[in-house]
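Bench notes, afternoon.
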Amino acid sequence: MSSASPALQDDGGARHLKRGRRMPDILLPTTAGREVSFARLSGRVVVYCYPWTGRPGLDNPPGWDDIPGAHGSTPQTEGFRNLYDGFRQVDAEVFGLSTQSSDHQRELVERLGVPFEIVSDAGFALAEALSLPTFTTGGVTYLKRLTLGLNDGRIERVFYPVRSPNSHAREVCAWLGMLHSSL
């Protein structure tokens, strides 16, 4: 199954996330066993938000195959993993973020060999503070796929919707590379 979703349209769900907006100072747990607040991080930070990652042998949530943009979290994470050295070369740190528990996320980090931290917003504190776009299926709410480019705790760039999770990390890395080369 392809991770690209040609039917995915910009529903305006991220229109309010304007350049220069300060990130809320909310501490969230990471897969490294620490807490992080994106408002307190200096320099360039990429936060890619994804809905859910499955586990081999377990079923997807109900109706997952029918939701534009739902599939692709594992290939998206692999893309950021594969290009992580490139992000570091332009002095950018990478974080994944979902509403899954840190335990669930740690399994993903170990299985895929992810070199960066995944952040859990299981309580939807950040999602609610930023009014991040979501969708619901099977009675469970998930984040829509979105990436924030931050600089010193402020939004610098928003990628939404993410139409091709497989190649999204290259898109973000190219933006950072262009930004870096113009400094």
